[in-house]
Amino acid sequence: MKAPLQQPFDVKLMNVAASALFAAGIVLLLAAVFWWALRHPLFAISGITVQGDVAHNNAVTLRANVAPRLAGNFFTVNLATAREAFEGVPWVRAAVVRREFPNRLRVSLEEHRAAAFWGAEGEGRLVNNFGEVFEANPGDVESDGLPRLSGPQEQAALVLTMYQTLQPMFEALDLGLEHVALTSRGSWQVELDNGGQVELGRGTPEEVVARTQRFLQTLTQVTSRYSRRPDALVSADLRHGDGYAVRLRGVGTTGADAVGKN
Fold it and tell me: For the domain 114-261, what is the CATH code?
């Protein structure tokens, strides 16, 4: 059996050179096509499709706010920058931006769902149902009767959870919560819809809830001694170790400081 013939060195060199030239030509061709695509007006961003939550923002307003911040065309536009631009619009919590060939963007929006007002009245801040603080026009809130929460902003989720835990407990006595506050020293305070003020004191959330539950379980008995209902409550202080102090509307000073023992 004969051994295969070896190609001369110059033939091998020509083959390698031809392959290299062919590859270089392909690369140059692709570069030319890419450069053409970058400059061709066909691929300039011509529209943005908005879907998802748009209860507080219409598509025209969103495009007007975001379009000036977009640079480049279909291939070069920075999607992260576009997402940040949409998420900078009031009420937008999250945005997902995708390219839509050949010259459009498609964005899916998730809006904040207001669970409460946050901070002092008129500050323009709210808390969503995730316990996140965001800024918006309070006049855009559709739901009436939202409570007001306050405290260190990083504790907003905890304050919201505390409100959601306490609210049905007070509601069982026909008392609504208007304001739940966590002070900088870690003390809890609530304001009722009748104007009553309740000092819940410090402690873990479990301790505060247990203390509040004991108070509410005996409040009806305390108020009935003075022929009053729970909504006559003016103030209560639960920071006493062995009970609490209450003031009732329409009860004189002498009898106002009634202490209910645990």
Answer: 3.40.50.11690
